[in-house]
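Hi there,

I know you've been waiting on this one. I reran it after we fixed the sequence typo, so this is the corrected version. Both the input and the resulting structure follow.
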Amino acid sequence: MGATRAAQILLVARAAFALHDENPECALTAAPPKRPRYLKFCQDYNNEAACCIPGHDLENQIQFENLIEGLGPGCKNPMMYPNIRYFYCLGCDPDQPTYTDEDDNVRICEDFITKLWDDYRPQYEECGVMRSNECPEGFDDFDPYTCGDDLIIPPHEYASGVEFMNAFKPPGMDDFNFISDNSSSCWKPAFMRSSAAGLSSSATVGVMLLGAALRRLL
């Protein structure tokens, strides 16, 4: 009897982890994450699987450069606004599918929103950002900034960090909605993820599924 019960538990454990280990689909590639060829802009994802390819990486770089292009020599430098750079690379994160629900809402951690919005407020007020102009009707498929841009001061235009993030979405993720979240299952850049959280989100969900199944057996 004991051996039978142990076998049942082993089968449930394997099924629980297999269920969550099914290959996730990345937003940018419509395929599971895989190790990319060299990424220049989103370098954090060179040494692991990524949800983007070099063409996406180049688009991230171009759109970030457009964001700061007209800020003037007293402000513009390639290292400014690093947290916007991290946000623009969200589509390359191999865990992007983990933080995206079936309604295409991407959960962004509140502490990262604070870094991107509240902590940058003085810089936004001193330098601003360039916002892409909408193109005339019939030219909707043009790339951002093709139809010109305007210098704006973000705190004068947006009431919150989430509103700002939804106005300046990561390239290729225009159809997604970015929402604030304070749970343990939300996106933040790799540098903000605690090394103490060594258990991956996949394993965590697997353990949760295993626990639920075991409660039925025991």
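Quick highlight: Confidence is low (pLDDT under 50) at residues 6-21, 195-218.

Best,
R. S.
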